[in-house]
Amino acid sequence: MILEIQHETTMEYSQPVSEWLCELRMEPISDRSQRCHSFQITIGQPAAISKYLDGFGNRVHHFNLLKPPATLRILAASVVETEDAGVGPIASHAEFPAGVPADEWQLPLETIDYLPLRGPARATSLLEPHLALLRPVPGMRVGMWVCQVAEHIRSRFQYARDVTDATSPIDHLLTRGKGVCQDFTHLMISILRSFGVPARYVSGYIHRPNRESQSHAWCEVWLPDVGWTGFDPTNGCPVNRDFVKTAVGRDFSDVPPNKGVYRGAGEERINVRVATRTLERLPSLSWHDQLPPLDVPVHSVLRTAPVYGDDTEVQQQQ
Q: Are the CB atoms for 270 and 215 separated by under 8 Å?
């Protein structure tokens, strides 16, 4: 499937901003399940955009603006070809060893960062009842257990916006029983890591035919005979060709789509719109000059900023 994705972010400031430094993690990754054919960033003010790979292999674009306007628009547009990798957690035949957590596995170096509990995916006493219900037994297939963990989360917690925020630890979801995909993913990561199973946070998009597409988050788990494979606890399904990955990390703090600092004061409003559409074939090289107008709802957050503000895109991934 060929997807065109538009991610528009509009920053509005009630008082002048003298300087703004921004990082974007919006360029889709190319791997075994997707290939990014084109990517374009358009900024409402001329800027020199630089690019680097962060420590997790994510593509990061960054730029600096002096005296940006009171309203600044950033549009990231991409064309991605996706396919079903055909390898989900249930395809794994790996079993839990005699010791749980699974400390007997020979884990590759790339998984080590995805084992400690940290940040929003933290250790908390509120997690203990869920760990007791989900504790695996030696000989149990790990992939099947991963699916059970995701179903446990999906069936016991309610999807609801505006209950948590981008910095919420799993305690908020466990206490309130409500959250968004970001919270569900952090909880799944916490449970998997508690039993020695490497798990990482994935940021990206989900294409939903005839429905509003949106930014999204899900979990990838490392299994000895499969490698990294994705599962979405919010929708209770393995990752398929409707999912587009843009960045991976230990938790949301490693992968915010838009992160920066600015020099200024007053109120800040961040408006975000995401739209996806399928294409019959790959477009021409000038496809970004002919993008259709965005006709999707705006998700916004109003913030009060200090003189030196951190304007991380604080909207929850939906």
A: no
Q: Are the C-beta atoms of 40 and 77 separated by less than 8 Å?
A: yes
Same domain membership, residue 199 and residue 102: yes
Concatenated DSSP letters of 243-256: EEEEEEESSGGG--
Inform me whether the pLDDT recorded for 128 exceeds 80. yes
- Which of 92-106, 158-172, 187-201 tops mean pLDDT? 187-201
Q: In angstroms, how far is CA 190 from the centroid of its own chain?
A: 16
**pLDDT of 60-103, one tens digit each?**
999 999 888 889 899 999 999 998 877 789 888 988 886 666 56
How many whole angstroms separate alpha carbon 187 and alpha carbon 128?
12
Residue 306: which domain range? Answer: 2-83+255-310
Q: What is the 3-state secondary structure (H, E, C) of 93-149?
A: CCECCCCCCCCCCCCCHHHHHHCCCECCECCCHHHHHHHHHHCCCCCCEHHHHHHHH
Q: Which of 74, 119, 57 is nearest to 260 (CA)?
A: 74
Average pLDDT taken over every residue of the chain: 87
**Within a domain: residue 104?**
yes
Q: Is the dihedral of CA 142, 143, 144, 148 positive or negative?
A: positive
pTM, rounded to two decimals: 0.89
Q: What is the CATH number of the domain that holds 239?
A: 3.10.620.30
Does residue 100 share a domain with residue 241? yes
Which of 181, 192, 16, 7 shows the shortest CA–CA distance to 96?
192
* 249 and 261 co-located in one domain: no
